[in-house]
Design brief:
The complex is a heterodimer of chains A (about 425) and B (about 200).
Chain A: H1 2-6, H2 16-19, H3 23-39, H4 44-55, H5 59-73, H6 79-95, H7 101-107, H8 114-126, H9 131-141, H10 155-166, H11 177-189, E1 191-193, E2 202-204, H12 208-223, H13 228-233, H14 235-241, H15 245-259, H16 264-267, H17 274-285, H18 290-302, H19 310-329, H20 333-346, H21 351-364, E3 365-366, H22 371-382, H23 384-387, H24 398-409
Helix pairs in contact in A: 3-4, 4-6, 5-6, 8-9, 9-11, 10-11, 10-15, 11-12, 12-14, 12-15, 15-17, 17-19, 18-19, 19-20, 19-21, 20-22, 22-24
Chain B: H1 6-17, H2 35-44, H3 50-58, H4 65-70, H5 72-83, H6 88-97, H7 100-103, H8 117-132, H9 149-156, E1 167-168, H10 173-194
Helix pairs in contact in B: 1-2, 2-5, 3-6, 5-6
């Protein structure tokens, strides 16, 4: 193995258990894997998964790799990608049932703040929050010299707070609830400004109170089981509060739990249920949340809805496609078109749904188009099975217009 | 375990840590550690199997903080022996753990060991070049999804303008729906007030 590795054929070493035996060989395989993550940004979800699988092979490979990635994450340019990679790896280890919290805490600088560190470690290790540790953190972050904000921005901790406040049916002790809300708002809104030499670090809390207020308002709406007309009356308030990204993350969680209930669509009477309309607003306000919403829409689009009649099922899926068109118009273009294209190519999606999507898109958008978009979208527009029935005799229908325009302007692509 | 000889300590460790090939350790031995046992471990350390050495070092992560402080000296002595190990994995891990008993943090400056240093520094140097070539903000850390705009900018700076793939020529259905829903919302709100 060392010989293969010395000769430079890292990709040939497929058995990680063999590679992990020697530090030198593992280092080269790790380098190949991280390099592939860095040089294929459009495929980062897959490359990070591959890398994580390899790193999580053993605890010794995990510690070593996380130290390396930690050093690289300090780079001011590009370092944030490495931080993300580290987080994906942590997630993978946790999914495999390993408690890596002490390793995470040994790298994030928490140990300089023993009380906060201990409280956080105990909750993250057990993957549940508890009022006593939350109280410790709450006090620490309200003391004169609070711990660095990065500690409570640990993704797992944020997810636990979101679950506690927005998952339907979770009951929090009302005496402690404000502390949960405070910590979540603090993590989302407070930021540290670069301290000048010899000065104490400055913490900016300008948006803290408004963020607390929004989380509280939406938590109260989501937490009490409101009927649809009551919910409708709150819609304008919800739209307002959704401007805070952290509230939007919470709403996605709440909507996800609500609409994936087996009988949700059976009981729904509206064409577009209010929960899904809320996702439209999230998408319009927050480009960073596009992928999360798309994941949820895909789950809904592919969900079995056996209790619905076939035609009602199709209507429901078209309604989900309307949400995807909204997502596309808000800038999440490539992932949405790629997904629909893959549905078409796999051949397991009713062709009328693909046709519906193509029609809606063609009616909504106009030139100039990007070459990438034309390249992705054109095969579906040109396909006779999808658009044959939509084309008229002349060139005045949207399908013909799109094809003619692109053929004239994008000769290199089509 | 207080008065056992070296050979017993070594046997005990092999029984506890040498069975599976998996290097993930739950730290079940931590409850049986004390200063005396740790001194025994230091003495028998060079003769342990590589797998057992690694798992022993990795179990340090599961030692509660107060014990870390109490056993600081003994743990550091084990690490001193481990750093000199001929198996590079053991040496590297011990080097990373060097600061752990006293500070609770890992050592990320792997620079003291002649055999290990070039592997570590070459890897970091090569990858650093690639990291610096990264386009801005393609993959953001997960916590960025939660941050208000000014907090986000303080962490990752401004996001570049997204590529424009087309223009919007007609309002999509969702935009019409939004206006409709807001109207219904204000109707519902005033109805609730009336009742």
């Amino acid at each position: 193995i060392k010989l293969i590795s010395d000769a430079g054929f890292q990709a040939e070493i497929t058995s990680i258990s063999t590679a992990a035996q020697q530090l030198e060989v593992f280092s080269r395989v790790l380098k190949t894997s991280i390099a592939s993550f860095l040089t294929n940004p459009e495929d980062w979800q897959n490359t990070s998964k591959e890398c994580a699988k390899m790193v999580c092979h053993g605890q010794h490979t995990y510690v070593y790799s996380q130290v390396i990635i930690h050093v690289l994450a300090r780079e001011s340019k590009g370092g944030s990608s490495m931080k993300r990679l580290s987080q994906e790896i942590t997630k993978c280890a946790q999914k495999n049932g390993h408690d890596v919290t002490p390793i995470t805490m040994a790298l994030n600088g928490a140990s300089a703040y023993p009380l906060a560190c201990q409280a956080l470690t105990s909750m993250l290790s057990k993957n549940t929050l508890n009022p006593a540790d939350i109280t410790v953190l709450y006090r620490n972050y309200n003391a004169p010299d609070p711990p660095p904000i990065d500690l409570i921005r640990t993704p797992q901790f944020l997810e636990l707070l979101i679950d506690a406040l927005f998952k339907p049916g979770v009951k929090l002790n009302p005496d402690h609830k404000p502390k949960y809300i405070h910590l979540l708002a603090y993590a989302a809104s407070v930021y540290e400004m670069q301290a000048k030499k010899g000065q104490k670090r400055v913490v900016n809390k300008d948006e803290l109170q408004a963020t607390i207020h929004s989380i509280e308002t939406v938590h109260n709406i989501c937490n009490t089981n409101k009927g649809s007309s009551e919910l409708m009356a709150e819609l304008a308030t919800l739209y307002q509060c959704l401007r805070y990204p952290v509230v939007s993350v919470g709403i996605i969680r709440w909507v996800e739990c609500t609409v994936t209930e087996a009988s949700y669509f059976k009981l729904s009477t509206e064409h577009t249920p209010i929960h899904l309309a809320l996702l439209d607003e999230v998408v319009t306000c927050h480009p960073l949340l596009h992928n999360q919403v798309l994941d949820l829409l895909i789950r809904l689009f592919e969900s079995k809805q056996d209790e619905l009649e076939i035609l009602v099922q199709l209507e429901m899926r078209k309604m989900v496609l309307d949400r995807m068109v909204n997502l596309l118009c808000a800038g999440c273009v490539v992932p949405v078109v790629k997904y629909i294209k893959q549905c078409w190519q796999k051949g397991d999606t009713d062709i009328s749904l693909i046709r519906y999507f193509v029609t809606e898109v063609l009616e909504t958008i106009g030139p100039p188009y990007s070459s990438e978009f034309v390249h992705l979208f054109m095969p579906m527009v040109e396909n006779d099975e999808i658009t044959g029935t939509m084309r008229g005799d002349g060139e005045n229908d949207p399908v013909s217009e799109f094809i003619v325009y692109c053929k004239a302007n994008y000769t290199a692509v089509v | 375990m207080a008065n056992v000889r070296d050979s017993d300590t070594s046997l005990w460790l092999h029984n506890k840590l040498g069975i599976s090939n998996d290097s993930w350790t739950g730290g079940s031995i931590c409850s049986q550690l004390n200063a005396e046992v740790l001194r025994n471990i230091k003495d028998c350390f060079p003769d342990l199997q590589t797998q057992v050495k690694l798992k022993l070092l990795l179990s340090f992560f599961h030692i509660p903080r107060r014990n870390l402080e109490e056993w600081k000296l003994e743990l550091e002595q084990i690490l001193d022996v481990a750093v000199a190990d001929s198996e590079l994995w053991v040496a590297m891990l011990a080097e990373a753990l060097k600061t752990y008993p006293s500070t609770g943090s890992l050592n990320t400056e792997i620079s003291d060991l002649d055999e290990v240093r070039p592997i570590f520094t070459d890897l970091v140097t090569d990858l650093r070049k690639l990291v610096r070539k990264q386009a801005e903000n393609v993959m953001l850390p997960m916590e960025c999804h939660y941050l208000n705009k000014s907090a986000l900018v303080s962490v990752v700076g401004h996001k570049p303008e997204p590529t424009k793939h087309f223009t919007i020529k007609k309002k999509q259905k969702s935009a019409i729906l939004r206006a409709d829903l807001l109207q219904k919302s204000s109707d519902a709100a005033s109805n609730l007030k009336k009742s």
